[in-house]
Amino acid sequence: MKLVGVCMAAMILAGSSCTGNANRTKTVTGNTDSLYLLVGSYARAQEEGIRVYVFNQETGKGTYRSGISGISNPSFLTPSADGSRVYAVGEDEGVSSTANALSFDRAKGTLSLINSQPTNGGAPCNITLSPKEDYVLTANYMGGSITVFPLGNRGELLAGDTLTFTGSGPDKERQAQPHLHSVLFTPDNRLLLANDLGTDCIHVFPVNNKKNGNLLNRTESYDVRLAPGAGPRHTCFAPDGKHAYLITELSGDVIVLSYDEMKLDTIQTIKADTLAARGSADIHISPDGDFVYASNRLKGDGIAIFSVSSEDGTLEKVGYQPTGVHPRNFVITPNGKYLLVACRDTNEIQVFARDAETGLLKDTGEKIEMSKPVCLKFVPME
After folding, report:
1. Which residues, at least 6 apart from 261, have a Cβ–Cβ distance to it below 8 Å?
2. Per residue in 211-268, pLDDT tens?
3. Maximum pairwise Cα distance, the chain
4. What is the pTM for the complete model shown?
5. 164/116 Cα distance (integer angstroms)
6. For residue 243, which of 49, 110, 178, 282 sits 20 to 30 Å off, Cα-Cα?
7. Cα separation of 62 and 22, whole Å?
């Protein structure tokens, strides 16, 4: 690897699904069954690109609370551990691409912008916080880079440091250059994994835990090479931290990796996309660790469902749930009862009930209507 440069008015949760057009204000009383659902989308800066909903994880119903404009294409979000701050990308392809810091008033359910910084890498499509929440990192798809932003005392973004990669893959159209698609810290906080769709590898950086110096140890970084043309996109870890599950966009595979002592090893590859649609998108594991779900787009839009072996973490495909058009990011409620899918091209968030025994999904008919939803994140109300 070569480095170039220094690279929802609010409403109380009601009994009907939400269209996102509410404009009246009520006080939401304390309810442990209710969560804030934060939604990022593709939107113009003058539109409510990020919306806040109240979602009841027992009934599967959601209502609009608030929205915020001012950010162009805030497609991906990450909240701080206490929910007081939210960081969002501004996924423009050129020099207007940004990372954005917002404060979140959980009593009111409203967001306000703290500040923005340029990513110096086009189309930032993923954002994460460092383990100590003193840095924010973006994966810049068109920039072929990741940007590391130190945080100030108010959680504001300071000037970023961009790490740019080189290389390409066998797909001349979609892998002509590096395409960084996600950045994720391992559960033990010892490594950063940066998935590069364009070069079929995971860039791995040891984390510097010293008080001074760079967050990432660049001199000891290395690459995990995947099959040519795979196109790695997103990764999730099992609750015990011993296995990782990687979805590849182009080959439509789920790659199962063991993780031990800062070492990743491939132990299984299994198809999520059996139609060769070349549009696999997101992957998550159920809170109990028993099932893995992976979204697919472009053909046969839906969610592939896998059971997880309790012995070795390997997968067996057990079902497939059709969804709306172009499912992107999705999220599972903390209690495991519901799976919500952001369907970009049908402008809706679908709510599926999840069977904890079989892992299978059932469309509840509940949906939240919103223009081009892309990213879903839960934040506790209390």
Report:
1. none
2. 667 899 999 999 999 999 999 999 999 999 999 999 999 999 999 999 998 999 999 9
3. 55
4. 0.91
5. 21
6. 178
7. 12
